[in-house]
Amino acid sequence: MNLTLSEDQILIRENAQKFLDLNYSFEKRQDIILKNKKLPFDYWKKYAELGWLGLAFSENVGGYDGNINNLMTLMECLGSSLILEPIIFNNIIIGKLFEELKIRNFNTSLEQIITGEKIYSFLFSPTESFENNILENLKIHKNNEKNILSGKCELVFGIDNFDYILIPLYLNNNINLYLLSNAKQGYEVRNFETVDNMIVSNIEFNNCELNNDELVFSTEKKAFFTKLDYIIDLAILSVCSQSLGIIDKMYELTLDYCKTRKQFGTPIGSFQVNQHKLVDMYIIKEEMRSLNYMAQLTFDSKVEERRRNVSLNKIFLGTHAKNMAQSCIQLHGGMGVAKEMSIGHYFSKITSYCNLFGNTSYHKERFASNDKF
Question: Which residues pair with 266 in a beta bridge?
Fold first, then answer.
């Protein structure tokens, strides 16, 4: 089994790192956060021009082969730079829904997603209860022969700035997908900033009228969640790949800090206890890399194996990787939590990712339920 990077993956990594180092340094990221302004739409377009928004999709729909290894190579790079755009939500999840379900006019929508011409969102809360949320949060009722949507959905990423939003509604044992434009009336969005400087939203619908031409897909509940489960696993693996890039960067920053920070006139990296900690950190990040590669290799195999390996990645993230991140902060001392230093921002991102798409306890149960050995 050859686990070395292919020529395509090396090219993706080199080009991504070059662009991110130039345009997404920690200082520039801080400037965006401190000024409390959104990234310009042109930045999303730059991602499209670089081909990043097409990596998850096959050539048949205008993408770049949909190779999971290429996609995860990019995710690792994006994690190491702490990008602020919710690319997992506004590109991977929504785009794969159009591709996998063959939603009406999916070719046009996918072209707009891949080229960055329009921003599409999916009304989805990334918790372990996402299935119940879809079934229970939003309801349709009739009013003078009109379909009226009401209800609310909390903790939704990627809807603070959208052109179209895809809404799943449960009716008569079917999941109906409605595609609404941002010009639609009858809803209110409230935005909040998360601990890792992302934007999460609560959206509430109040007498929002749905038109028949806005219904773009309908299928039986079980079939929909089977497809969605596959797509969410891809999103979880993307989170774990970004986390791999994060702890790789945290290790690098901590190693450099231990070489320069002095106590009693001696670099703290020369103390044996700290050397042991750094070795343990290196082992953890390489173990995480191995688990991540295994999940990539088995992603399109049997459902149980895919679910098991994806959950194993998430369990490792919430235990060993999180502990490693805490050790990095500890070695930095008080400076580790200073806003002026990047290490604390990486820790905040890891902390956020530990709970995204289900926490450690949830994935332990999920792993056990798919363990047939």
Answer: 263
